[in-house]
Here is the input.
Amino acid sequence: MLDLNPREFTSPVSTPTPEGTRLRVFLAHHLPVCVLLGALLGQLLLLSFQITRNHDVRLIRVWAVAILDPFERNLAKLVDNATQAWRTYRGLWQAHQQNQELHLQLVAIRSELQQASEKVAEAERLRALLEFKSRFPYQTVAAEVIATSPGEGGDAIFLDKGMDYGLTADLAVLTPAGVVGKTIAVFPRTAQVLLITDSSSGVACLLERSRIQGILKGRSHNLCQLQYVMNEEQIPVGETLISSGLDQIYPKGLPVGTVVQTGDGNIYKQIIVKPAVALNRLETVLVIPRLNAGQQQALNLLSRP
Here is the structure.
């Protein structure tokens, strides 16, 4: 005989929650009031649909406008402000992009102007060299300065011409402004030039007006000193110094420098000379090939004052 437990067939009874209990109690006590309020609200809505104001505008529409108008105005203002902020941000971004593009264009234009200025300066230098070569009675070899000596004074330079152009040692190097130095070492495609500001250099010179002769030696700070001029000689500051040609390297009459300071020594005067050429800005120079006796004599005749 089966033993049936009635508890297995009975559905569980749900226990009401405290929130549900309070809601039922509230509705039980205030149901008439709630029904009355609902009826009044419905009646009010019905009246608002029926009653009209000026220009046949229903009251419900007036109320809706009165309630929603502040929100609509604030929303419209917010949208306008957001739109204006976006336009401002977009304008600033576009201005920033344009400024960057203009800056790049300005840099490019400045670079082009610099290159054009360099080309103009180079053309002027080459024109001066060509004019000088056309006036100079003998052939010269044009060379570019490719390096300077690593010493502090920079008293030597290297040229891009060498044995391949027939250069040898002890050749005069100059520019249209005056004497630069002489070649001391020549290689297959390059040559080393000793500048007149080097202490081991020597140029036979004479003063252009007084014709007083001396030997120009290199001195520190891109200056030279004219030696072997007696103390009794009157050497004015500013007088031009030219090559005398007695050293058989530099043709006679080439500008060498200008007297910037004089003073008496033990026997010889202390004469400081500033080179005629800006030796720290050399780019292109001319090398004079070795002259034979006839060419040197003809050059001396042409160089006489």
About this structure: Residues 14 and 20 are 12 Å apart (CA to CA). Confidence is low (pLDDT under 50) at residues 6-11. The two ends are 159 Å apart (CA to CA).
